[in-house]
Design brief:
SaposinB_dom, about 120 residues, about 0% strand, mainly alpha, globular, disulfide bond, 6 helices, NK-Lysin
């Protein structure tokens, strides 16, 4: 039974895609900004990040952004408190690969950038 589950899991696994990686990096950049500007409570940071997700113009990207925040706020917050390792958080939560991080410019792409 366990062997069949492992095979199914491996067959359904998909590597992270570059667009979702950029959304994750966007979230981390905003999280760092708010964390370093006195939002040091996990619940307050989550609320702020979800509000920022709502400013993304594409609804699919908004959904992805909110999913990343809701499913990973504990890891995001813990890494910020520990001094995040240059995007390693997005690799750890499986939204980026190390290769994608080396290609990153650090700035969110036009389609991910929040509209104000």
């Amino acid at each position: 039974m366990a062997a069949s589950f492992s095979i199914v899991f491996l067959c359904n696994w998909q590597p992270p895609n570059e667009h979702e990686c950029r959304i994750c990096e966007f979230i981390l950049a905003i999280a760092k900004h708010h964390f370093h500007n006195n939002i040091t409570d996990e619940a307050a940071l989550k609320a702020q990040l979800l509000a920022e997700c709502g400013h993304i113009s594409n609804s699919d990207d908004q959904t992805t952004c909110k999913k990343i925040v809701n499913n990973n706020i504990d890891k995001i917050f813990a890494d910020l408190k520990a001094g995040d390792r240059d995007g390693q958080t997005c690799v750890d939560i499986h939204y980026c690969t190390p290769a994608e991080l080396t290609r990153s410019t650090g700035a969110p792409s036009q389609e991910v950038r929040a509209h104000r």
